[in-house]
From TrEMBL:
Keywords for this protein: Membrane, Transmembrane, Transmembrane helix
Signal peptide residues on this chain, from the entry's feature table: none
This protein's name: ABC-2 family transporter protein
Record flagged with keyword Transmembrane helix: yes
Annotated TM spans: 48-70, 82-101, 196-215, 268-287, 355-374, 380-400, 421-452, 458-482, 502-522, 534-559
Amino acid sequence: MSGESQQAEFGSRWDAPQVHRDLLWLTNARSQFRLRRTFERICSPRRIVATLLAGVFLVAYLMYGIFVLSNRAAASPDHLRAWLSGGMVLYAFYHAVRCVWTESMVDLEMTPAERLWLGGGPLHRSSLATYRITNIVSATAIKTLLLTIVIARDVQHVELLVLGVFSSLLLLDTVRQILVRIASGLSDVNRRRAKAVSVVMISAVALQVIAKVTAMTPMGSPTWLYLIHVFYSVGELAQGVVIQAFAIAWIPMASLAVASSYSMWTPIAIVCNVMTILFAVRVLVWADHWALMQSRTQEQSLLRELDRSDGNGSATSRFAENRSLEVDVLCGHRGLSATVALLVRQYQSVRRYRGTILISFVIPTLLCLSPLVTNQVMEQWFYVVSGVALCTMLLAPPALRLDFRRDLLRMQLLKSLPVKPLSMVVGQLTLPILITWIFQWVTLTIAALVVHPGWGQWLMWTMLMAAFAVFTFAAENALFLVYPHHAHQQGLGMMLRAKLTFLGKAGVIAGSLALLVLWAAVCKSILPESFHAFGFVGGAIVATWGIAAVSVLVTAMCWRRFDLSFDLPPQ
């Protein structure tokens, strides 16, 4: 049967089954290659540290699941079912907001090689969409395994739990793909409207959580009780009527996961789950087709606008002016040093994404200042500083990917530039660190004006947090240069990387607090009483900035040893 007759038989948007079998073979071949490559990297002496850490994490996680989680009291099946379905909806809301506020999104999250060889081939978009879903099955299975270890104590049949959780996570990722494609097809006006709707939605969720926390927590309670009740409030919100109404597609999957016994409804629930996922894939194909049509319409409209304005030269002169600005700044000023030229390059990105960056730090600022509403005056300053430290280490690096982490595809170009490693690192990291410093300074200054901890405390913690920001971004980039990865990469390696990075950051924060307490004890024991505060503050500032400087030098060393032939991950 010819290709034309096959396409006529299966419709204008779908390829023949043989095409999908070939794509499935490609997915299997890529998976086998990645497994072999992962095994080779595990055995490589260059990766021995990552191998040991991953092994320790897996053993600790399994031991924790066996000896700790298995001995806790089982949760109510009704609450667990509502939490599983409602939690997926909250996660989908998060992805919707993120898609609306993200300026650039990769087409179906395909790598450049996939966009070249598959996107440019004689394949329908529906085949590419289903190919994308099959590629996330392995990552979904790994996530299912980890979540199953956590909640296996709460169910009677682990096999049904695995089926329900796997279906829920696979549907969630498919919904995320749908949201990405719909967001990519929005016009500028509709995107602004969607942003306004997202702000209203976030505000409604935040107000509900605040109201629940206020009702649950008596006035004058310690701040840690407020934090615990926040998690309880989020759980109750996930079980609410509104969220459960949105979770109608996940309710059968959650019911299957917590089923206490097999019944006549078990095969029906399994069939419903499969049909739901297939329907979601069909919606993804429709959303992709709609996004392509919208993008084509917007491009045609832009071309017509340029044709109309070309007569008076306004548009042409505007684009020429912008181009001349970029070319002159980045290439034409021979007197500029390499670091300054890199800073100007970073500034172009900051100016383009200034709205997203501003929103990304307004919410953490409000969260860090939230302890100020409690009546525990002695605890307020401590919790604000702790919140700033957590946001600096956990939220700032993902929000400010304006360094080496966005330049993986440009590594060959960056390596070819006549720029010293230290100058390259300073040029790449300065603006993200400066933006983080502004967030820290604003938050700590507002808290100091309210709590009045003393300007000595404000100065000390401002300097410490500034050094902490330098260390955080330097460590993130050093880790990326040693173990690089693509922006939307999936799989076991990325999952382990995320878990180990989170645990490592938590360990750094805990270790820093322990060292500060130890240094305070040392100063109290060896220094005269009048020099206690001066010695503690001065020593802490000198030590943290020394560690920050060393971390920058380590990042420069990692950039110097970056090997294009070995370290660049395949596409």
